[in-house]
Amino acid sequence: MATVVDGDIDTIAVLNGGSGYIESKTIITANLATNPQFIVQQDLPGDDEPYLFAIKDPECINDGLHISLHCEEKLDARGNKVANDLLSIRIIDPLKPNRYRYEFTGRLSDGDRDDFGSSTFLPDVVSRKTDAIDFIVGQDATVSPSSLIYRYDDDGEEQRITSDLLKPFIEGSLAFDAATYATARRKLVSSTLDFAYISSLDTDSIAVLKELMQAAYETNRNLRFDVQGDTVLEAISFKDSLSIETRLENHLIHAFWTPLLVEDPTAGNGSMQMGSATLNIAMACFRNAHKDAKGFAPKHYPIMGKNWALNNVRKNIRQLVNINRAQLNMLARAKINPVIYEDGNYIFSDFLTCADVDVSLRALISVTDMSTDIDAATVRFCNGMKGYPINEAIKRTKDFLTSMFEGAESAGWLVPSNDPDMLGKSFKFDVFASPERPYDVFIVNYWLRYQGTARQIFITQSCTR
Length: 465
What we know:
Blueprint: E1 2-6, E2 11-17, E3 38-40, E4 53-57, E5 66-71, E6 86-92, E7 100-107, H1 122-129, E8 134-137, E9 161-162, H2 178-189, E10 197-199, H3 206-219, E11 222-226, H4 232-240, E12 253-257, E13 260-263, E14 271-273, H5 277-288, E15 318-319, H6 325-333, E16 336-342, E17 345-348, H7 365-384, H8 390-411, E18 427-433, E19 442-448
Helix pairs in contact: 2-3, 7-8
């Protein structure tokens, strides 16, 4: 929590760090009129300490921030400058000083409206722009004409006061319990943001991974996580400790083990061992951005092999463990995808899900990518059919499924099935009113034959005369 003090009216602005961190309790006091500084503290000032405004910053950027202030001049009927509450605030990233994280202009008092009828009260202005900043205004807060933020310079430019570097939180050793993780998972599941993947961010916490696996199940999204361990046996042991084979959603869970040492991308920590599950997701997002005319991305091409080599994005890579063929087989049986050196590149060498199957499309990450996409599109469309007459809803759903599956087939996602019930087609569906509740419920079933992806190639050479 950081505070600005204005010497003329003894006002304070407060900045507060987000949850999950131990906040700084250091208090820095100064007279804004002569030597502007900010106060960092844990709580809002008391009733006997009037303050200008308070900011809570839940994002808790590790590098801290700067706050820059300017107050517009206000003249009375005689042309004299009087106190004003129209304030311009910039929140500045110290690593990108020319690009503001946020910039707000509004009033410290409620009641005024702009030309479009929107409130100019600063808490309202902030909330319309972002949920990542909470803004609280002090009681009867205004800026005196004698303040250094209240003026223009001789060239007619805004006179601004910018704080020193503020770090509104410090990281501590706060321990989270199971209930905290469960609460975080529920917030992730109920998020209004549309996302396709969940990353473990290289965590080694079993409790966190289990909540993320539950989130994958509840959202039908892919979870890609980093397996911990310095050896093949340690990696397999870590993965086995998660008991993934007992979970219903195990085909949505994808494990990556990266026994590589790489140069720190931030150039601040020398060489380090980094996971690659998040990198795999980033590459998948890049691939997914390239869609065909019908909106289908090439998801039948998994993120693996030399086309997605780590050499292109990470530097000075060294493999820490030599892995033989038997160990590769052990990792494959454990459903772990090693990220290793092969034929001149460091690559994602496999693309297996954690599904407890041996011969099934559910074993392939590419199929999970496509199937979750189809499921999400179907759910979105069917939710849009709520409130329609049921016969019309059924007809529209059939038309939608036909168009979507034909598009998936032309994109290469679907291929003709060998199942006799499929009659040589790549897809089949059925949409009908529920026999038990035909007045308000209809049922959608579909069967799809996704295209697989080459994992193993057996080559035989015979010498003849």
